[in-house]
Amino acid sequence: MKLEKIYQILFKKYGDLHWWPADTPFEVIIGAILTQNTAWTNVEKALERFEGNLSPERVLNMPLEELQEIIRPSGFYKQKSQYLKAVTEWFAGYDCEINEIKSRPLTDIRSELLKVKGIGNETADSIILYALELPSFVIDAYTMRLFKRIPVDAGTTYMEAKNFCERELPRDAQLYKNFHALIVQNAKEHCRKKALCTACPLEQVCQKLF
């Protein structure tokens, strides 16, 4: 099954989901950390507790205990507070200028992010794609589940699946954003752990290899 065909089917069903919701690129960076191992609704609760004052300066200068209390709804708040400090220090290393970061090769940016405490492949690619708006495909558990069920021979590891998607699709950040959002949306409505295949837009092309 060609990825573009899957994308077209999902896009026809759900359209442009305008994902990821954020007021600033820095908020996306913070959200990418907070969403680890939790639902987005919990991330929203944590972000609201910044009360409209979410800036690199505030995160860097805030006592760790205060930051932990603010982000408590996101879970794992002690770990995540350290991760937020670390990624904000990385961001401040570029004077918090998105364009300065984007002027560097994407592979270098990704390598740097992976060295930041608390950032793995999925978080790094989420920051690159949604905060920096550069074409780096995000793989998550929903993507791997979908590929297994269709099936799509994208490999079994994160990097195998990522590289497969980037070979098969045009290098376009907006396309990558939409595709990731569409996979997540369909996973929530149909391609759950216990699949709800009736009325799934991919039902006719999926072999349901559960």
Average pLDDT? 96
Question: In total, how many beta strands?
Answer: 0
Largest sheet geometry: none
CATH class of the largest domain: Mainly Alpha
Oligomerization status of the protein chains = single chain
Task: Please explain how this structure is put together.
Helix 2 runs antiparallel to helix 9 and helix 8 packs across helix 9. The protein folds into 2 domains: 69 residues, no CATH class; 107 residues, Endonuclease III, domain 1 (Orthogonal Bundle), CATH 1.10.340.30. The chain is mainly alpha-helical. Helices cover 58% and strands 0% of the residues. The two termini are 17 Å apart.
Question: In brief, what are we looking at here?
Answer:
The chain has twelve helices and no strands. It has helices at 3-14, 25-34, 40-48, 56-61, 64-70, 77-92, 98-102, 106-114, 121-131, 141-149, 158-168, 173-189.
